[in-house]
Specification:
This protein is an all-alpha fold. Helices cover 57% and strands 0% of the residues.
Amino acid sequence: MTGATATTWPRVRADGDVPVDTPRVPAREAAERELSDPRYHENDPNLLQRALDRFWDWVGGLFDAASGATPGGPLGVIVLALVIVLLIAALWWRLGAPRRTPASPDALFGDRPRSAAEHRTAAEAHAAAHRWNPAVQERMRALVRALEERTVLDPRPGRTADEAAAEAGRSLPAHADRLRTAARSFDDVTYGDRTADEAAYLHLRDLDLSLITAKPSLTGTSSPGGATE
């Protein structure tokens, strides 16, 4: 029509659908950018929470499905839940529970130096109360400290019971086997989570008393002329 403003209609596609007006695309993009602002998501659950929510939804779905299929109805669901809990606990104990392993050998003595007499007094007090583990520990410390006081062993911080037994066994070969047994008893109760008894303590006490008068062997020491005695 001449002189009139023509109205432009959206072009119809061949399949008959009307295309989406192009101004709507920037509007949608602007809305998406606005909703991506972090302040809109401050209270959203984190990844772990979402995973847990999905897990419990899944468990709930299993129970809902089992409530109709499990013999006994609700009671059957309760039994099934208990079985699942027991299985999870068994798996946790088998795979996730900390395993009790012997600790690495540590220094025989603590930070505060004590004399052999002090260790013996402590050992006898524990033995009188039938506390055999600390009695064995204190008697082994008394034994090694006495050897240090007699200079059979050189005082050396950080020495373990096994090291002390091996070094003392070289100077006192007649007692080497009993020294190794004593060190093993100390390690068993200190690091191996074992329980000592009166016999173990008496063995250590008798060895300690025997070593008081034992004389170190001079085998292997050099004489002034270079020969060995």
